[in-house]
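Friendly challenge for the regulars: who can give me the structure tokens for this chain first? No prize, just bragging rights.
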Amino acid sequence: ANGQWRILQACRLIDKKGVATAIRAFAAFALEFPQAEFSIAGKGSLQPELEKLAERLGVGRQIHFVGFLGERDLRNLYGRSHIFLHPSETPSDENQEGVPNSMLEAMATGMPVVATRHGGIPEAVAEGVNGFLSNERDPSNLGRDLTRIARSPDLYRRFSVGAREAVERTFDQAATIRALERVYVEVAHPQKTERIAGREPAQALSFAESAVAK
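First reply, four minutes later:
Bragging rights claimed.
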């Protein structure tokens, strides 16, 4: 309510993470919410260049490069933040991302996501359900998306619930382990595929390993 929005990105400071684009998007957002802050958790060779960009855009004091954080500190930072910003983009070597783990972690805490249609990101972020997606290298639109979420408590609440539900439904660790184990068993012994269903993950993994070994 007081406009002190806390935006977060957690990643290595490399080209494909789109951190420069994120800084430009935040600068646009900060024009309307001058008390907002942007924390960037991670390290990389681009940090000096990114710090200069933040200063040049007039948001140097609002952007915090907090470095790599341990699990507890990162979890606490998720808990103190409001929106996860992750505008990944395809670099010159065409090295794309899958689904960023940090984004899933943020969604699991109920953070709406503003990101790009890049790699595996659309597998987790559904437009208008738990966040917004823009084309790559479009800081203006990303900034508008941040503003749309900040202006609407109802939209924020809906996206927050949707983010958590998406992780529980699609990216739950136990469920993905069971799905992978079924693939192993099906490849090794198709007739045994059904026998893995309903087992606890540890039991299923042991069964799968045994089946593959045989």
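The chain has eight helices and six strands. Strands lie at 6-10, 37-41, 63-65, 83-86, 113-116, 131-134. Your move, everyone else.
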